[in-house]
Write a sequence for this structure.
């Protein structure tokens, strides 16, 4: 890791997801080595044209979101801000900073795409749950006390989300 530095929060916030991937098993690592270090290279075929990507982006943007679902994301954004009146005692005690507007946008756009992948044409709370952690775990940060106490960031995010989801109807 020498020579690498953590990105500032403003740059980290520009990544859509942070997906945690465990180290591969011995068999998987062996297959990776076999596929990537041999003399033959696999042909990569173009899957989508640029226009296809733009079309998909338009389709995702057109997926409707009910007001109460959208409001839960807005409430989540506020509820993760340690200085907010709506923040829980745990958020105020353990978070350094919460979800940015860009993070809320990432949840909404990702939930829309998730709904389409699931064969539905509107966003449900299950779509929000499906994308919640990958879209937020790099944007919401524990403070020193949260780290020292061993607080589970994922657990805290889920707890706040469920409170916000129950708070709208």
């Amino acid at each position: 890791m020498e020579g690498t530095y953590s990105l500032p929060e403003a740059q980290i916030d520009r990544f859509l997801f942070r997906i945690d991937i465990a180290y591969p098993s011995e068999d998987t690592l062996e297959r990776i080595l076999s596929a990537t270090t041999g003399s033959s290279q696999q042909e990569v075929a173009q899957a989508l044209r640029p226009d296809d990507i733009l079309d998909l982006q338009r389709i995702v943007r057109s997926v409707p979101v009910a007001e109460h679902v959208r409001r839960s994301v807005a409430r989540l954004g506020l509820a993760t801000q340690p200085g907010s009146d709506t923040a829980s005692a745990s958020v105020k005690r353990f978070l350094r900073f919460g979800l940015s507007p860009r993070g809320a946008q990432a949840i909404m756009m990702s939930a829309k795409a998730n709904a389409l992948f699931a064969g539905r044409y509107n966003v449900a709370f299950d779509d929000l749950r499906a994308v919640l952690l990958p879209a937020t775990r790099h944007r919401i940060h524990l403070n020193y006390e949260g780290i020292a106490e061993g607080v589970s960031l994922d657990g805290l995010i889920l707890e706040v989300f469920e409170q916000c989801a129950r708070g709208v109807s």
Notes: The beta strands are 95-97, 141-142. The CA atoms of residues 18 and 134 lie 5 Å apart. The chain has a mean pLDDT of 92.
